[in-house]
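hey so u asked for the seq, here:
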Amino acid sequence: MSTNPYKVMIVDDEESIRKTLKSRLEREGHNVIVATSAEEAETLLSRERNISVVITDVRMPGKDGVTLLSEQKPLHPEKKFIIMTGHGEKSTAVTALKNGASDYLEKPFEMDEILHSLKRAQYEYDLERKQENQVQTLKERATRAEALAVQDTWVQPSSLAMKSVLDWLSVLKRESMKNDAPEPTVLVSGHTGTGKEGIAQLIHRQSRRGNGALVTVNCANFTTAQALESELFGHERGAFSGAASMKRGLVELADRGTLFLDEVSNMDTSVQAQVVRLLKDGVIRRVGGTEDIQVDVRVISATPVDLESIANEGTFRSDLASALAGVHIEMPELKQRREDIVLLAKTFAEKAFRARGKPFVGFTLDAETALETYDWPGNVRELQNVMDRTALCFEGTTAVEAHQIIGLRFRNPAPLRAISSSEVSVSFEVGPEGFTALKKRFSDEFERQFILRSLDRHGGNVSAASKEALVDRSNFLRLMRRHVIRSAQYRKAA
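ran it, structure tokens below
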């Protein structure tokens, strides 16, 4: 039995030729399949993954070999075609070569001739495949580089919200390395710009499918259900107006890899049923097709809205919402992880400045404060864009000041309410620690006393206390955790 992973397909309506060629090629170590017509060859080409060379006769009932070549070569440009022509059909051979044939053989031919032609075609196929793999490797490196800045800041985040995300990534990575365990679907939710696609890339790369394809489909980019259905599942020739030839869908291209469905909440309900079948049975059917196609695909999806809510409204299938959320990861908004903002900004800035050949020294304290207090409605994506614009415009070798951060929209601060000495009373005697340490102690005690008295005034109501203090509620909670303050002790009995 041949161990060659690639297959050679022989297409000829004469049984004697098929048997003779198949027998000899198999003795030479080739993995051979046969087709009795061009139509059967088309079906095999759409199903079989590893056909490298097609050897086809020209004259056959129905479609001839040149038509098979001209229609299938654009769909399978990587495959090599060898044409067998009759004596005196030089013009046919020339047409075949123009249409992409690797070689032609004029009947009657010696077996050594076809072996030599096949060896050359297989060499070209292997060489091109190696080059494609090298290009794919470069693309993957570029993709990794794009996500590297964000990924680096996920290694040791300060915020509890991102630590929770990292915990899920660790669980998924560990479980994926168990070859006998099925990899769960993952639903990544969060506002626009929070890094959902970056998380999907990480999950894919850290899985056992990491060497396979990561195929991304943005469901919001399709104006009709038919367009999305055709893109995902492919279509057969003549399935609808404009379907001039068979087309493989992106789900097929993601076989043995990962399919990332971005903005999945925008998927039409008619397409959702087929995604449910894909997740349940691992099969799809092309538009206009009559046969099922088995695929091995892991699905990761992303949404800015709650799928359960829109399922309750009837605009999304509840069974699909459940199937997609094998693991549900919620990406926090940037303003919910303010502890990470400066680290993220520095990482983005270092990359942006380095790309422009400029030194990045860092940010001044005022700049860091401005970055931390801004609400970042565009989240991580906005922060990265701001750092890119800052690097473009910045000149000099000093730390970046607040007013030099290009694109940061400062809020007009509300007037501060006067705080009486009875509310905050802190006194320190100057000790040996010096000004900086003394200032930090004073600042820490000020924060603690301010939080304590604010909670006392509002009976432990964190929302009311943070609103009066003009501090974001999540940041107010962070300060409470820092000073080990619990709101429960201030709540008034009903």
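The first helix runs from residue 15 to 27. The CA atoms of residues 10 and 34 lie 5 Å apart.
lmk if thats what u needed
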